[in-house]
Write a structure and sequence with these properties.
The chain contains 3 helices and no strands. It is an all-alpha fold.
């Protein structure tokens, strides 16, 4: 009797284990959104740094410096 029920218990345990590992669609969407925001911030930092480097005397460079400052300390023009 026990040997017949053992495979059933193993299957149930595996199914419960796999279902616990899945993330909800809401969690997946939140992770995707967070990743997208980080990527967009990195692209913005790079583009602002390029403007400051290529056109240091332009009015756009001063605006780019302002925006780099607003993005945070890791975004200063000398850092990459």
């Amino acid at each position: 009797m026990v040997t017949r029920l053992l495979p059933v218990f193993v299957c149930v345990a595996l199914l419960l284990g796999f279902s616990a590992c899945k993330k909800s669609p809401k969690d997946l969407k939140a992770e995707q959104d967070a990743k997208w925001r980080v990527e967009q911030k990195q692209k913005a930092i790079k583009n602002y740094q390029d403007i400051v480097k290529k056109y240091p005397e332009s009015p756009f460079a001063s605006k780019a410096k302002e925006r780099l400052g607003a993005l945070g300390p890791a975004s200063s023009p000398g850092k990459k």
